């Protein structure tokens, strides 16, 4: 399809194709917009709201919003980044994120986005929910304490693996991930380490056993480069470094209590 | 021996065949399965999974979304106390406590003998005759101590619900001020005859001329909606009547469905003819389950009158019928795209929009979703013309609006007024005295103080879906706001981060203020949350979730100030409370076993 249309993102002209959403066009042009539930390989979901931008003055999720010719989009502004930080803080207090002891630390998109947004504290009172650990599967571990309900594993299992291993249940603050087994245990599903769903979790829920900490913390993806400059973890859509990327702040205090 | 799965197959198979093994009807199948078995047994899910060819995770995901679907055993009697602020004002909490202590059960739990379970539920739409409850999803009104005592006795004696005194279930209409709609003496078929006489194009024009706007809250032009849908391309077009009526304090659709169902169904049929639909749905909130048989009977009667079904009134190209789908305790399913998801048997999560239902609704086909009252009003326009209707009300808000009045007043019930009526007029008519505040359009609406009582009910001033809750001087407006905030927390669908987490944060903050640990710092925090929820939430629920608190802080500040024990920030985490377990274990409760701070506040 022809690239006849453009919009501006923080003043920069971005071309787009029919059917692309704002974040897709931005990524293709090498511009980073913070996001968690979006992954270029999957249909946008629009739930985490980290990718919120102002499009012609109205706030909207850039992963689901289609651009219009000449649309003026603002993303990297103090106002919007403040809001993104608050959303991240919400996600941190909603679950149990003890980053220093988490196997995903350094490869975690939640943590890396929190650095990017200069989040220094969880700000809100922690919920400390009671959540389960499922170690039933011989090769994979599920630590629900860290689930941010992005539904990427749900989409991957359903749309790519054709399996429906994962689904969301509950409602509101009681929403939670379930697996497709009467026992409720991963071992009793047809989940396999070769599944796409085994490799899409942006945080540390779906973890391969016995490889923990083989790459030491400090030498992982987001330890080397900030998330805004890191090719997308799934590698499908490289993004260039953001011009004004600041040096990394100290580790945010995201451990609870 | 009967295998466990056969036990479930026995009652599930007839249900499945009624629904033609259609996975889109999953929620309806679950509701009926539960009416048989009391809850959704794990073996029943196995059977449904194989018969509907749905993964078990999907069935559990759907079941887990709805408050009235249970995956665990419940009591034989499932008792739910309606917990709107109006129920609270009428003493529902004391009554629940009384019932619980008489029957040895705790709220939120099942009694040890499995006889009953007790809990609260969001407003059940009987605010004009509360306090109300639902027993096994059937509504009971006007709870009093003696009625509760009688209910305890009936439960203890295991009397089946069908043998309980009929007066417990005598839901009243309480129509106090009828106007053109409630007074219309509508003759079934008359609006359809008018349409067939004038033609669809002309009738659509009349709807547009009437300037009728949706009565469900948003106020979109009904004529335009129908026209967009008529012009949208699709294999099928659908008409959906939104009878979810979940906004606390709203109960006018309940009365319309009880006394004016013919008119509502006829409005849907007009719409069907205009947009070219063959199938319609009425999405009836689970709390109105008691109306189902009555509504089915009205539909059946209309079929006999040839007002539904094939060749309607002798027109070979006019075929339309209506199916009733039940909700199962989820306010968010009143939002039109969540409603459509629910109609499709899914979790009631609002869709990404655009596209809108008029082009991509039920099964992605062009769909009109309108409120119950909107459809009823369309019959009047078909009968009397657009000009006639537009002359009623104000310039930008034509016609009448039915208000559901409840709270502190002599005569709670339904009041129909031409748009433009003042709040003061309504207060006078319903016999409200010493009024401190009126909450208009429910928790998502606005809270009005006496200096604003000269304002009007109209889209251009105070728009409303119908709720009108009155609070006199004796009421604590902080508790009103706190009740509403708990409502939003309970009803957030959980899809998007700001609303899922934000409504919990907000309700924790209100509880903290209530416990006397608040400071002015928390007000600033609430303001910030509000901005965040308004700008980033996915749907209207999140957008309006902070309204009750902001409104009451702005207008009833003393109710908050008296709870501010501290000038400076105090964390919500109370160390002394945290020590209570240790005190219990050591059997100590002396001064030394307490921290200083909570001592002072005792
Ligand atoms: C959270 C939420 C709840 C809603 N609940 C209802 C409802 O119970 N009944 C209703 O008619 N509309 C409700 N609406 C509005 C519907 O989305 C929709 O606008 C309406 O049904 C359209 O019909 P109308 O044009 O006739 O008003 C709700 C909207 C939101 C955001
Ligand atoms: S497990 Fe991971 S991928 Fe799945 S919903 Fe939770 S955070 Fe998202
Ligand atoms: S705003 Fe609330 S109710 Fe609406 S989609 Fe988000 S979580 Fe669900
Ligand atoms: S990335 Fe757009 S809402 Fe999550």
How would you describe the overall organization of this protein?
The complex is a heterodimer of chains A (257) and B (602). By secondary structure, chain A is of the alpha+beta class. Chain A has 2 domains: 6-76, Ubiquitin-like (UB roll) (Roll); 83-221, 2-Layer Sandwich (Alpha-Beta Plaits), CATH 3.30.70.20. In chain A, 18% of the residues lie in helices and 15% in strands. Chain A is built from 5 helices and 10 strands; from the N terminus they run ββαβββααββαβββα. Chain A has a 5-stranded mixed sheet, covered by helices on one side. Chain A has a 3-stranded antiparallel sheet with strand order 6-7-10, with no helix packed on it. The N and C termini of chain A lie far apart (53 Å). Chain B has 602 residues and is of the alpha/beta class. Chain B contains 26 helices and 14 strands. A 6-stranded mixed sheet of chain B has the order 5-11-10-14-12-13, with helices on both faces. In chain B, strand 10 and strand 11 (413-418) form a beta hairpin. The interface between A and B is large, with 39 and 44 residues. The structure holds flavin mononucleotide, iron/sulfur cluster (SF4) (2 copies) and FE2/S2 (inorganic) cluster (FES). FE2/S2 (inorganic) cluster (FES) binds at residues 35-38, 46-51, 61, 63 of chain A.
Write down the secondary-structure element order of chain A: EEHEEEHHEEHEEEH
Q: Please identify the structural class of chain A as seen in this structure.
A: alpha+beta
CA-CA gap between termini of chain B: 63 Å
Which CATH architecture of the largest domain in chain A is right? 2-Layer Sandwich
Instruction: Report Rg of chain B.
Output: 25 Å
**CATH top level class name of the largest domain in chain B:** Alpha Beta
Q: Which shape of chain A, going by the Cα principal axes?
A: globular
CATH fold description of the largest domain in chain A: Alpha-Beta Plaits
Tally of individual domains of chain B: 5
Strand content of chain B: 5-15%
- The total count of strands of chain A amounts to 10
CATH superfamily descriptor of the largest domain in chain B: NADH-ubiquinone oxidoreductase 51kDa subunit
* Widest beta sheet: strand line-up of chain A: 2-1-5-3-4
Count of alpha/pi helices of chain B: 26
Q: Please report the number of helical segments of chain A.
A: 5
Say which molecules are bound, naming each kind only once.
flavin mononucleotide, iron/sulfur cluster, FE2/S2 (inorganic) cluster
CATH architecture of the largest domain in chain B: 3-Layer(aba) Sandwich
How many E-type strands of chain B? 14
Pair with the most extensive interface? A-B, 39 and 44 residues
**Helical content class of chain A:** 10-25%
């Amino acid at each position: 399809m022809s690239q006849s249309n453009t919009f501006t993102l923080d003043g920069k002209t971005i071309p787009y194709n029919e059917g692309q959403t704002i974040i897709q066009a931005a990524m293709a042009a090498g511009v980073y917009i913070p996001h968690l539930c979006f992954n270029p390989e999957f249909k946008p979901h629009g739930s985490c709201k980290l990718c919120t931008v102002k499009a012609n003055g109205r706030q909207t999720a850039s992963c689901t919003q289609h651009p219009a010719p000449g649309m003026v989009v603002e993303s990297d502004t103090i106002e919007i980044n403040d809001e993104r930080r608050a959303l991240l803080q919400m996600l941190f207090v909603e679950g149990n994120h003890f980053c220093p002891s988490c196997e995903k630390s350094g490869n975690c998109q939640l943590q890396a986005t929190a650095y990017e947004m200069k989040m220094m504290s969880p700000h809100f009172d922690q919920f400390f929910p009671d959540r389960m650990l499922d170690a039933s599967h011989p090769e994979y571990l599920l630590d629900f304490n860290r689930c941010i309900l992005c539904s990427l594993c749900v989409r991957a299992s359903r749309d790519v693996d054709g399996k429906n291993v994962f689904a969301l249940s509950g409602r509101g603050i009681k929403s939670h991930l379930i697996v497709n087994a009467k026992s409720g245990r991963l071992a009793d599903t047809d989940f396999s380490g070769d599944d796409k769903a085994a490799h899409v979790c942006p945080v540390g829920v779906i973890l391969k056993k016995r490889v923990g900490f083989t790459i030491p913390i400090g030498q992982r993806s987001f330890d080397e480069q900030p998330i805004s400059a890191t090719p997308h973890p799934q590698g499908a859509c490289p993004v260039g470094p953001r011009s004004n990327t600041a040096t990394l702040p100290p580790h945010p205090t995201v451990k609870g209590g | 021996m009967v295998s466990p799965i056969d036990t479930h197959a026995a009652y599930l198979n007839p249900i499945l065949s009624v629904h033609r093994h259609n996975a889109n009807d999953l929620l309806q199948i679950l509701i009926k399965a539960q009416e048989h078995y009391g809850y959704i047994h794990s073996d029943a899910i196995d059977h449904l999974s194989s018969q509907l060819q749905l993964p078990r995770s999907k069935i559990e995901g759907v079941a887990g979304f709805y408050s009235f679907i249970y995956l665990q055993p419940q009591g034989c009697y499932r008792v739910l106390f309606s917990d709107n602020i109006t129920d609270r004002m009428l003493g529902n909490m004391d009554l629940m406590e009384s019932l619980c202590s008489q029957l040895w059960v705790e709220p939120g739990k099942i009694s040890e003998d499995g006889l009953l379970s007790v809990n609260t539920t969001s407003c059940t739409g009987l605010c004009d005759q509360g306090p109300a409850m639902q027993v096994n999803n059937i509504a009971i009104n006007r709870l009093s101590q003696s009625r509760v005592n009688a209910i305890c006795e009936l439960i203890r004696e295991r009397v089946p619900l069908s043998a309980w005194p009929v007066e417990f279930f005598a839901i009243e209409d309480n129509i106090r001020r009828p106007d053109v709609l409630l007074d219309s003496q509508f003759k079934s078929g008359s609006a359809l005859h008018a349409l067939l006489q004038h033609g669809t194009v002309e009738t659509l024009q009349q709807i547009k001329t009437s300037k009728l706007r949706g009565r469900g809250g948003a106020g979109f032009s009904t004529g335009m909606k129908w026209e967009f849908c008529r012009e949208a391309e699709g294999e099928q077009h659908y008409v959906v009547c939104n009878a979810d009526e979940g906004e606390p304090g709203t109960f006018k659709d309940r009365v319309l469905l009880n006394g004016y169902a013919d008119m509502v169904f006829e409005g849907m049929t007009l719409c069907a003819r205009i947009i070219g639909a063959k199938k319609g749905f009425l999405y009836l909130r689970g709390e109105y389950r008691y109306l189902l048989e009555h509504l089915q009977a009205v539909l059946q009667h209309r079929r006999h009158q040839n007002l539904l079904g094939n060749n309607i009134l002798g027109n070979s190209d006019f075929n339309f019928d209506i199916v009733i789908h039940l909700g199962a305790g989820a306010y968010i399913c009143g939002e039109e795209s969540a409603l459509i998801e629910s109609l499709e048997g899914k979790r009631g999560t609002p869709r990404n929009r655009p596209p809108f239902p008029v082009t991509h609704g039920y099964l992605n086909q062009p769909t009109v979703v309108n409120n119950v009252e909107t459809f009823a009003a369309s019959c009047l326009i078909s009968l009397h013309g657009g000009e006639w209707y537009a002359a009623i009300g104000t310039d930008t808000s034509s016609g009448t609006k039915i208000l559901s009045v409840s709270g502190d007043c002599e005569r709670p019930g339904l009041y129909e007024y031409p748009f433009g009526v003042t709040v003061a007029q309504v207060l006078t008519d319903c016999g409200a005295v010493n009024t401190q505040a009126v909450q208009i359009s429910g928790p998502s609406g606005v809270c009005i103080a006496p200096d604003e009582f000269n304002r009007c009910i109209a889209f251009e001033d105070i728009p409303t879906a119908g709720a009108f809750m009155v609070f006199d001087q004796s009421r604590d407006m902080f508790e009103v706001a706190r009740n509403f905030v708990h409502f939003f927390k309970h009803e957030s669908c959980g899809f998007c981060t700001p609303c899922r987490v934000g409504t919990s944060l907000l309700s924790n903050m209100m509880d903290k203020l209530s416990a006397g640990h608040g400071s002015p710092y928390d007000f600033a925090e609430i303001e910030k949350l509000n901005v965040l929820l308004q700008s980033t939430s996915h749907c209207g629920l999140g957008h309006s979730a902070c309204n009750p608190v902001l409104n009451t802080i702005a207008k009833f500040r003393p109710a908050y100030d008296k709870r501010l024990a501290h000038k400076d920030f105090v964390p919500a985490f109370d160390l002394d409370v945290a020590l209570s377990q240790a005190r219990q274990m050591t059997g100590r409760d002396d001064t030394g076993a307490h921290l200083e701070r909570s001592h002072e506040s005792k």
